[in-house]
Amino acid sequence: MAMAGLYRRLLPSPPAIDFASPQGKELFMEAIHSGTMENFYRLISYFQTQSEPAYCGLASLSMVLNALAIDPGRKWKGPWRWFDESMLDCCEPLEKVKARGISFGKLVCLAQCAGAKVQAFRTNHSTINDFRKYVMECSTSDDCHLISSYNRAALKQTGTGHFSPIGGYHAGKDMALILDVARFKYPPHWVPLPILWDAMDNVDETTGQRRGFMLVSRPHREPGLLYTLSCKHESWIGIAKYLMEDVPLLLKSESVKDIQKVISIIFTSLPSNFEEFIKWVAEVRRREDGAQGVSPEENARLSVKEEVLRQVQDTGLYKHVTEYLSSANSCRRNITTPNNGDNLPKLAASVCCHGAEILFGKSGSQGYCCRETCVKCLEANGRKPITVVCGTVVNGNSEQGVDMLLPSSESSSTCHCSGSKDHIWLHPAENDVLTALLLALPAETWSGIKEEKLLEEIYNLVSIENLPTFLQEEVFHLRRQLHLLKRCQENKVDEVLSAPLF
């Protein structure tokens, strides 16, 4: 027997007041006059309905990220970069979220992985007065937004755990406006803040932890300008463990006498699939979108990336890494020098396939192959030429022309197609990627080195305080990601929200 479909629910009132009701409109106007609806305008501009019954967390976060104008760094559809629920798959596979939702801790992790600045609080680590203060803070500004994790039952609504952004506050009545992302079920509604607090002060049975709230704001610049760590490939678990646990133990060996030995110990045991762990943030576009030139926006981002790359290559650590990779002892299956012209076709094809994965939001897919690869230079609106790797990427019966814009590539202005033996240095070269990865390791990684002079030399090489601003922030971003991944690997994301990342 077929089951009848459900069309919305009657909003239980009290305790809630429908936003569109006469009383709801009155509360709205009074709150506007009190200046506690400033965040509403941004949120309502990007208000969306969750596309799956269990996607309330993903819908709330993508809505907030778009309201904060955070660039996702990869395309959604066509030429457009835009946060969508389908792109928020870093900390939990979408199929798992679709089946059982997402926990509060993993949503916090997702927000950080997406590039947002996040403050998260469970109710047992906060108070209702703190919550009220933060609701007021976000409601009087459009620079931060608050997402609440609560149990619907406390509001006499059907269902259990739910996420939604808070779209405003009425100070006189002490009521918060919930912009419910399940708009197919309930409309936006006002609720008394004490009742909302009680709804958050509830244990999530799947984690054994209390629910809470998170403040999401925009960092002062986009994180991960050139490098990012990936947890979309299964290899990240082993690599995170190796970097955070095994490396400090390996460096306690008595045989560690100089910098080259330190680097050798780390790289000799580095898992062979580390390339899936640290990646460079690519500028990628469909060929038909890019035409012949480079837009001012693309050129500006590439200029900053080139500066970050230059700063990496100016570090003393980079010189030691390059020396090691160039030595006879570096001939290993997973560490190759980037300057070999014989590797150009393979490297260019790999770059284009990586670009296609970013373009279509299918990172880690094994279905792409690349043909007709070439490297050329394009005009950049009167500035120096930009190096582009072009390729036709094939996936099944479909094919797509892809252009990848590369910072600081050394090439002439002519096209170098597959099979060319010309020397071209395509970014990312492993020496700069590995240098960034070493800089991101926590300071305690090196503490087991017994030679005091060597330990002092290492600390000088990896000291973040001595780095230029762009590179310093890049390393901070990688280090935050590394600690988040370690927490994921230890299943501690839902246990430790407010502990410092480093």
UniProtKB/TrEMBL annotation:
This is glutathione gamma-glutamylcysteinyltransferase. Involved in the synthesis of phytochelatins (PC) and homophytochelatins (hPC), the heavy-metal-binding peptides of plants. Its EC number is 2.3.2.15. Residues 1-221 form the Peptidase C83 domain. One of its GO terms (molecular function) is glutathione gamma-glutamylcysteinyltransferase activity. It comes from Cannabis sativa (Hemp). GO terms for biological process: cellular detoxification of cadmium ion; detoxification of copper ion; phytochelatin biosynthetic process. Signal peptide: none annotated. The keyword Glycoprotein does not apply. It comes from the Eukaryota. Keywords: Acyltransferase, Cadmium, Metal-binding, Transferase.
